[in-house]
Amino acid sequence: MAKLLQVDFPFTGPFGAEMAEALKDLAVSITEEPGFIWKIWTENASENDAGGIYLFKTEETAQAYLEKHTARLKGLGVEKVHGKIFDVNLDLSKITNGPV
């Protein structure tokens, strides 16, 4: 069953188009992660937060990516990384046009 991974963390920028340019290589590398299906990037410049919502094929692949991403962020000086893995209710998500 597909698993949704929600990650957020303190981030001071860049945001918007600058973020897109700066993190383009990272975005490409994420598409090559085992079990990866898609990601929606999130950012809130007014509250200095960023993160993403991911869909992975299994809980194991979501957990492995969360561990890898958390280590990468901590290596960049991010102290608090929040990550949660959820089941996806496919029936309801299809009704509300969820990308599943």
UniProtKB/TrEMBL annotation:
Pfam families reported for this sequence: ydhR
Keywords attached to this entry: Monooxygenase, Oxidoreductase
Source organism = Marinobacter xiaoshiensis
Entry protein name: Monooxygenase
Q: Which GO terms describe its molecular function?
A: monooxygenase activity
